[in-house]
């Protein structure tokens, strides 16, 4: 899609799959649970679960990991500012959403 100021990324975790949390990967991202259920654990051991439709922002939570606790694949959609994009440069939301690499993949997007 167009070269707007935001990037859309999709992450899929299989049943029972755990992904270590990397703050830099999720920086500035608004995350929607598109399908399945995610459990997050903080560094102090606190846990919380969120199902489809939940909207999350991980900044400041000191997370340890994310895990798919459901019987179906977990699908997370993360939307964040394109690196190097100026604040306010988003423009039309429909035109500004681009496909990027999934957080945690080898390609930082």
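^ Assign residues to that structure.
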């Amino acid at each position: 899609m167009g070269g707007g100021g935001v990037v859309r990324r999709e992450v899929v975790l299989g049943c029972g799959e755990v992904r270590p949390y990397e703050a830099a990967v999720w920086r500035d991202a608004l995350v929607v649970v598109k399908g399945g259920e995610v459990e997050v654990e903080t560094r102090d051991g606190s846990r919380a679960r969120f199902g489809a439709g939940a909207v999350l922002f991980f900044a400041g939570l000191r997370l340890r990991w994310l895990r798919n606790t459901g019987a179906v694949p977990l699908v997370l959609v993360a939307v964040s500012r394109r690196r190097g994009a100026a604040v306010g440069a988003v423009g039309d939301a429909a035109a500004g959403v681009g496909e990027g690499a999934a957080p945690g993949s080898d390609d930082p997007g």
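The chain has a mean pLDDT of 80.
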